[in-house]
Design brief:
The structure is a single chain. The chain is of the alpha/beta class. The chain has one domain: Creatininase (Rossmann fold, 3-Layer(aba) Sandwich), CATH 3.40.50.10310. Helix content is 32%, strand content 7%. The protein is built from seven helices and four strands, in the order H-E-H-E-H-E-H-E-H-H-H. The protein has a four-stranded parallel β-sheet with strand order 2-1-3-4, with helices on both faces. Helix 2 packs across helix 6 and helix 6 crosses helix 7. It is globular, with a radius of gyration of 20 Å. The structure holds zinc ion. The site of zinc ion has 6 residues, from helix 2.
Length: 290
C-alpha cells in the first residue's frame, strides 16, 4: 500500500476530500512532508536511503503520537536534489529549481486545503537550502502559514553516543548512523560485507573550518570511487533501533509543540514570486494586491 512507513490512520491522502473538509482544527493540524532522495549511498546501501529514513523516522513518531495531537503525513517526495552524487549510477536527481517549484506547489496545495502548519522533514543532506528557500517563499505569500524545514536526524538521538570523534566531525554520507538506521528500517537491502571506511582529508584552514569538514563545495567523487564518506563498518541493527527509538521520541515532542504553538501572523499583502507587489512598511504607496 502507498502509506509505506506511515501508519494508515495518519496518512492524509487516505482521506476523501469531504473527510478533509470536515477535519476539526485544520489551522493547527501539522502536515508532514517527508523529503528524501534517490542517490548512491556506497556499495553497501540502496539508493533509497534518504527517502526510507525520512519516512521511517516520521512514521515511527506518528505511531507514538498521542491521538489528541492532530498531524498527518503526506506521501514522501522521493526524488531530491542529488547533483553531488551524479557520478554514480542509480542517482536520480532533480535540479534545485525543479525541487523548489515542487515544494512550493505542494505547499500551496496544503495551504489551499485549509492547513496552516507544514513540516518539511528532510532526509538528504544535499538539499536543506532548497527546503529553506521554499519555506521562505511560502511564508512571503501567506502571513498565516507556519512552514518548518528541518532535518529528520537533527533532533536529539542516540546517534552521537555511538560514534567516535572522527565520525562525528567528518562523516557526511553513508556512514555509521545512516547504515545503522537502514539495518533497523530495511535490513534486507543492506550488504555489510561491502561496507568500508572512507574519510575526506581534513580541510586545511582552521579559520574556515574548525572541525576539519570541507568549507569548500564538494561532490562525492572528490573523495574516492566508493561514494562512502564516513565509517559504516561497525554499525549494527541494535544501534539503528536505538537511534530510531530516540529520534521518534524527539519527534513526538516536536510535533506536539508544533501542533500547540501559535506564531506571529502578518496580515499585509505580500511579496511572493507569484505576486511581486505588496505592502511596504512606512510607505504611503501601499499597492493593493489583485
Ligand atoms: Zn543519505
Amino acid at each position: 500500500m502507498l502509506h509505506g512507513y506511515i501508519p494508515p490512520h495518519r496518512f492524509l491522502p487516505y482521506l476523501s476530500w469531504t473527510d478533509i473538509n470536515a477535519l476539526p482544527d485544520r489551522e493547527n493540524t501539522v502536515v508532514v512532508l517527508p523529503c528524501g532522495a534517490i542517490e548512491q549511498h556506497g556499495p553497501h546501501l540502496p539508493c533509497s536511503v534518504d527517502s526510507v529514513i525520512a519516512s521511517g523516522v516520521i512514521g515511527k513518531a506518528l505511531e507514538r503520537l498521542p491521538s489528541d495531537v492532530r498531524a498527518f503525513a503526506m506521501p514522501p517526495i522521493t526524488y531530491g536534489k542529488s547533483e553531488e552524487h551524479l557520478h554514480f549510477p542509480g542517482t536520480m536527481t532533480l535540479t534545485g529549481t525543479t525541487l523548489l517549484s515542487t515544494l512550493v506547489e505542494i505547499g500551496e496545495s496544503v495551504y489551499r486545503s485549509g492547513f496552516r502548519k507544514l513540516l518539511l522533514a528532510n532526509g538528504h543532506g544535499g538539499q536543506p537550502q532548497v527546503l529553506e528557500m521554499a519555506a521562505r517563499e511560502l511564508r512571503l505569500r501567506h502571513g498565516d502559514f507556519v512552514i518548518v524545514p528541518f532535518g529528520v536526524s537533527r533532533l536529539p538521538s542516540a546517534a552521537s553516543r555511538q560514534v567516535g570523534e572522527q565520525e562525528k566531525k567528518l562523516a557526511m554520507h553513508a556512514g555509521h548512523s545512516e547504515t545503522a538506521l537502514m539495518l533497523a528500517l530495511a535490513p534486507d537491502t543492506v550488504h555489510m560485507e561491502r561496507a568500508i571506511a572512507n574519510f575526506p582529508p581534513a580541510f586545511p584552514s582552521k579559520m574556515l573550518s574548525s572541525d576539519g569538514r570541507p568549507a569548500c563545495a564538494w561532490v562525492a567523487r572528490d573523495f574516492g570511487p566508493t561514494g562512502i564518506i564516513g565509517d559504516p563498518t561497525t554499525a549494527t541493527r541494535e544501534q539503528g533501533e536505538e537511534i530510531l527509538d530516540t529520534l521518534a521520541d524527539s519527534w513526538v515532542q516536536a510535533l506536539t509543540e508544533l501542533y500547540q504553538l501559535q506564531w506571529a501572523e502578518r496580515p499585509q499583502a505580500t511579496w511572493g514570486r507569484s505576486n511581486e507587489t505588496g505592502f511596504i512598511q512606512g510607505s504611503e504607496q501601499h499597492v493593493p494586491t489583485p
